[in-house]
Amino acid sequence: MAIASFFSSYPLALLVFTLALGLIIGSFLNVVIYRLPVMMQREWTQQCYEFLELKDDKANKNETDKFSKFNLAQPGSHCPNCNHEITALENIPVLSYLIQAGKCKNCKAPISRRYPIIESATGIFTVLIAYQFGFTWLTLVALVLTWSLIVLTMIDYDHQLLPDDITLPLLWLGLIINYFGLITTLEAAFLGSVAGYLILWLVYWLFKLFTGKEGMGYGDFKLLAALGAWMGWQALPQIILLSSLIGALIGITLVIIKGRDKNIPIPFGPYLAGAGFVSLLWSNELNQLYSAIFF
């Protein structure tokens, strides 16, 4: 194929292309990160109205009518301060933010730095995937996983929520791609999904039995099950160890340095997602490092 031959001959062109692609996708991920939790909350509220038989109430009907206008496509992007509709030229990833000095073009209200940071991070992670796997089918599916992990990380950070709309399709997609042996065998993927769920499920109930508290949510079980489906059961110890280590270090740092209340829950999803991404890229290198340290 001409495109594959071109990128094989000019690997730098592949990296430039994937960087541009990652920045564009990062802009869309910002939309998903903000809107998906709102869509879910509005859907739950609407279901409560219906369950309580309040759907015929005029006030509630007016409220629920607003829900149909809010999705990943509508309404169009706009400034939350002045409702100025953001044009295509004002929505160029990172570049528009820099040109406008991080302010709304209309009202000059500050724009959160989070948007260009997520766009930049998505671009960098996309390039890392392309650099590691080249112009292959593995790169394509690995990008789907990477972009999904970015969304899950930010939503869990904001809301302590890992949406089934993302974790469950990821689990099935992992099993499907490994039916063709793209990353591991189907047997290893199946065992990885089962073990990934059951390991954290067991930790959850043991922690609750001894403390009377919930140490994590069911979304964490599903995320680890999805990672197990993608990378096989062999990757689970590495992912669990790495995520637990990073989570513990960050949690202790927040308590000691910033005085964070230790009773305030810290989402575990971002650490699982980060460990999964690292394991996807550098699993063999990490195994060699573990062996050098502990054996």
Structure explained in plain terms:
The protein is mostly helical and 295 residues long. It has eleven helices and no strands. The longest helix is centred in the N-terminal third of the chain and has 41 residues. It is globular. The termini are far apart.
Give the key terms.
295 residues; mainly alpha; single chain; globular
Brief summary of the model shown:
This protein has 295 residues and is an all-alpha fold.
Q: Approximately what portion of the residues adopt beta-strand conformation?
A: under 5%
Relative helix content? over 70%
Radius of gyration: 21 Å
For the biggest sheet, the summary is: none
Low-pLDDT stretches are: 58-67
The backbone outline, from C-alpha atoms, is: globular
Break the fold down into its secondary structure elements and pairings.
Elements (H helix, E strand, L loop, with lengths): L1 H8 L1 H41 L6 H8 L29 H5 L14 H20 L3 H23 L4 H16 L6 H26 L6 H14 L4 H21 L12 H26 L1
Helix pairs in contact: 1-2, 2-5, 2-6, 5-6, 6-7, 6-11, 7-8, 7-9, 8-9, 9-11, 10-11
